Amino acid sequence: MATRSILLFLLLSLPVSLSFVTSRTRGISSSSQRTTILPGTAASNLDDAVLDSILETAVDASKAAASIIRENADGSAVVEKKSTTRDLLTLIDPLCEKAIREKVVENFPDHGILGEEEVKPGIQASIDALEAKLLDSDWLWIIDPIDGTTNFASGIPINMPSIAVAYKGEVMVAVLNDPHRDELFTAVRGRGARLNGDRIHVGLQETLGEAVVGMESPAGEGSLQQCLQGIEPLMKSVRTVRMLGSSAVFLPWVANGRLTAYWTPDECAWDIAAGSLMVQEAGGKCTDILGNEYNLRTRNLIASNGKIHDSLLTVLREDASLSPLV
Fold first, then answer.
1. Do residues 281 and 187 lie in contact, with contact meaning Cβ atoms separated by under 8 Å?
2. Domain end among 141, 172, 199
3. Are residues 179 and 140 in the same domain?
4. In a domain, 14, yes or no
5. Which N-terminal residues, if any, form the signal peptide (predicted)?
6. Dihedral of the CA atoms 10, 269, 226, 258 (nearest 10)?
7. What are 73-123's pLDDT values in tens digits?
8. For residue 25, what are the contacts with CB-CB under 8 A and spacing of at least 6?
9. How far apart are CA 252 and CA 264, in angstroms?
10. Residue 61, exposed/middle/buried by CB under 10 A (0-12, 13-18, 19+)?
11. Are 79 and 129 spatial neighbours (Cβ–Cβ below 8 Å)?
12. At 246, phi and psi to the nearest 5?
């Protein structure tokens, strides 16, 4: 009961508006049909001009979606509850995804696209969709038109479009565009991460006691129990914990030092692919709860400034006795 009360307090403590100054790997069962993802191997084969062109298109696409979100920032009617009553779709989500897709198809008609709104609800459906797309094309755009849909539907300004572009399974370009704070986060593998054009870096905290940690309670099966299990030992170990309902917001906040770390027990590729590259390119670290380096199949994500990463893993894996959901 005490643990549930703590979680409820965190959820209800969300401010109406925020303003800031300038931060398990699973797949389909047939392993013979899975594309092998080897981190760090794809970038050396790519021309800078190609990445520049992709980044430019991704930025334009994110701006198109961000404009739609901004125009409807007071909230939108929920038209569908997807996998659970906590997983929503609004009238605006498909419009944002359509705007992004049009930009991609116009400039890169031969590239694959994986968008949240085209995938059936449920964990296995999202896993299967990713595997199918990885087999279908070397280049894959991974899109969440509005990450933080529940916030958006409620008029809470903590949501944004998320765009990641992967080559042979490795994320090469990431764009996260916050329409509520006019903050454009971009990253290209090997070139660092930027906020509105300026380089950003993770925070300098060296101990868990100094750490401000973000976490989420996703809609998927088992996620709530993992959060309840993890939050008490986490709160006893860090400076404070925050829950705001959007991986696409929290991960770039780790990248620019607003947060020291972020943990989520189960997310789809479109929720965390762009933000994970952002953290890595800002000097941070991204793994699953077992300590394996992030890749597109990772669902249980821990992202941090790197300095407190092992300590955070210990708290979640040993003190909270957590393991991947599947």
1. yes
2. 199
3. yes
4. no
5. 1-19
6. -40
7. 886 665 555 555 555 567 889 999 999 999 999 999 999 999 988 898 888
8. 288, 292, 295, 297, 298, 299, 324
9. 14
10. buried
11. no
12. -160, 115
Q: How many CB atoms lie within 10 A of CB 213?
A: 26
- List the beta bridge partners of residue 143: 115, 163
Question: Residue 158 and residue 33: Cα distance in Å, rounded?
Answer: 38
Please enumerate, by residue number, every residue annotated as part of a binding site for Mg(2+). 116, 144, 146-147, 271
Q: Are 144 and 270 in contact (CB under 8 A)?
A: yes
Q: What is the pLDDT of residues 75-87, one digit of tens each?
A: 666 555 555 555 5
Tokens 């916050």, residue?
Answer: 178
Residues 142, 166 within the same domain: yes
Could you tell me if 169 and 311 lie in one domain? no
Within this chain, do residues 61 and 161 fall inside the same structural domain, yes or no? Answer: yes
pTM of the model: 0.86
Binding site residue list: 116, 144, 146-147, 271
SS3 312: helix
* Residue 217: domain span: 202-319
